[in-house]
């Protein structure tokens, strides 16, 4: 379904990108700066199942997790004025890509492998798809996933930015683009 009713300033913004790139951290800050509601899809899934993601994968399996991920993204992406951070695997589902591209502004937070791999030690515990895998395996996953993120409205290379700096930059860039797209007075 395409949400024709919302102007560009009202559309929700969806942050996509690889696990640990900073979608949750930057998304939350961006929501504060733009006075918008923040929705973290991973956190919403955890609330629904009342358990952390590794346990959801263990008890119900990845397919059940992916179905709930789709259901929740469908719900929040059609509402106005949300900043939505999705999980790193959400854009593997074509239906999710379509829903987000048609209803929202899709913002790809990109990072190089060189920068990302320095963060790995803080990421493995809560992310079942990283746990127990070799660095080589994780690099393959990182590279494989890039294709799914190529569908976006805007890309931000985050390597050299602290989260706060990235959110400041993105808030300014979004406000500028809204001004450019604002209807001109007659
Ligand atoms: N710009 C940044 N520079 C350095 N560290 C960062 C930056 N952004 C986030 N981090 C750190 O990286 C870790 C992962 O960030 P975050 O949870 O926001 O990633 P994510 O993209 O939401 O991951 P996931 O796809 O698993 O939900 C956190 O510990 C966070 O503090
Ligand atoms: O990249 C992925 O497939 C995932 C990323 C996380 O955000 C969680 O959604 C989950 O751990 C799966
Ligand atoms: Mg996250």
From TrEMBL:
Biological processes annotated in GO: amino acid biosynthetic process; aromatic amino acid family biosynthetic process; chorismate biosynthetic process
Residues reported to bind ATP: 20-25, 127
Summary of subunit composition and partner proteins: Monomer.
Record: residues binding substrate: 42, 66, 88, 145
SUPFAM superfamilies, A to Z: P-loop containing nucleoside triphosphate hydrolases (SSF52540)
Enzyme Commission number: 2.7.1.71
Associated pathway: Metabolic intermediate biosynthesis; chorismate biosynthesis; chorismate from D-erythrose 4-phosphate and phosphoenolpyruvate: step 5/7
Bound cofactor: record note: Binds 1 Mg(2+) ion per subunit.
Stated name of the protein: Shikimate kinase
Function field: Catalyzes the specific phosphorylation of the 3-hydroxyl group of shikimic acid using ATP as a cosubstrate.
Enzyme class: transferase
Binding sites annotated in the UniProt record for Mg(2+): 24
CDD domains according to UniProt: SK
Organism: Planococcus halocryophilus
Keyword Glycoprotein part of the UniProt annotation: no
GO molecular-function term, one example from the UniProt record: magnesium ion binding
Catalytic reactions on record: shikimate + ATP = 3-phosphoshikimate + ADP + H(+)
Pfam families, per the entry: SKI (PF01202)
InterPro entries: P-loop_NTPase, Shikimate/glucono_kinase, Shikimate_kinase/TSH1, Shikimate_kinase_CS
Cofactor(s) required for function per UniProt: Mg(2+)
Record keywords: Amino-acid biosynthesis, Aromatic amino acid biosynthesis, ATP-binding, Cytoplasm, Kinase, Magnesium, Metal-binding, Nucleotide-binding, Transferase
Family named by the database record: Belongs to the shikimate kinase family.
Lineage, broadest ranks: Bacteria, Bacillati, Bacillota, Bacilli, Bacillales
Source taxon at top rank: Bacteria
Compartment annotation: Cytoplasm
């Amino acid at each position: 379904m395409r949400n024709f009713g919302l102007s560009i300033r009202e559309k929700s913004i969806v942050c996509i990108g690889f696990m640990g790139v900073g979608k949750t951290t930057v998304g939350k800050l961006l929501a504060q700066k733009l006075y918008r509601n923040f929705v973290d899809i991973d956190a919403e899934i955890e609330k629904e199942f009342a358990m952390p993601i590794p346990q959801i994968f263990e008890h119900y399996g990845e397919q059940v997790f992916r179905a709930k991920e789709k259901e929740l993204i469908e719900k929040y992406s059609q509402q106005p004025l949300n900043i939505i951070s999705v999980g790193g695997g959400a854009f593997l589902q074509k239906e999710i890509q379509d829903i987000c591209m048609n209803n929202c502004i899709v913002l790809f937070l990109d990072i190089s492998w060189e920068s990302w791999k320095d963060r790995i030690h803080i990421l493995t515990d809560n992310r079942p798809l990283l746990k127990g895998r070799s660095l080589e395996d994780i690099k393959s996953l990182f590279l494989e996933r890039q294709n799914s993120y190529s569908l976006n409205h805007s890309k931000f290379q985050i390597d050299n930015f602290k989260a706060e700096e990235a959110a400041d930059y993105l808030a300014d860039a979004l406000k500028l683009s809204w001004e450019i797209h604002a209807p001109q007075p007659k």
